[in-house]
Write a structure and sequence with these properties.
Layout lengths: L4 H4 L6 E11 L5 H12 L2 E6 L5 E8 H14 L5 E13 L7 E3 L2
Parallel strand pairs: 2-5
Antiparallel strand pairs: 1-3, 1-4, 2-3
Helix pairs in contact: 2-3
């Protein structure tokens, strides 16, 4: 019996990457700390930091369903005490490998 290579290998999860920017009351509420903790729980990688415009910006990489879950957290929940007014996502990409080893807060 002849089998193909595709039928014997397990399917690889789809890895994606996205840039984000969160606007609103995100200062003084440990937003970056909570975001980092959430990313660690989800197993996504990337970075986050405050921008000079008073927003939070960053990049997330990971399995698509995990990145989607983090995107919902950034858009709808955030850290305790934060008030998210807007959350934009851009530059969605499918990636082959991770560029980051973990999720970090940048300064």
């Amino acid at each position: 019996m002849l089998t193909t290579l595709h039928s014997t290998l397990p399917a690889r999860p789809l890895l994606v990457q996205v840039d984000f920017e969160v606007s609103g009351d995100v200062h003084g509420c440990l937003f970056t700390k909570y975001a980092r903790e959430m990313c660690q729980q989800l197993g996504v990688k990337g970075w986050i930091r405050f921008s000079r415009w008073g927003t939070v910006i960053g990049q997330i990489q990971g399995e698509k369903d995990r990145v989607d879950e983090m995107a919902l957290w950034l858009r709808l929940q955030g850290s305790p005490g934060s008030k998210i007014v807007r959350c934009d996502f851009k530059n969605w990409l499918i990636v082959d490998t991770y560029d980051f080893r973990n999720f970090s807060v940048r300064f």
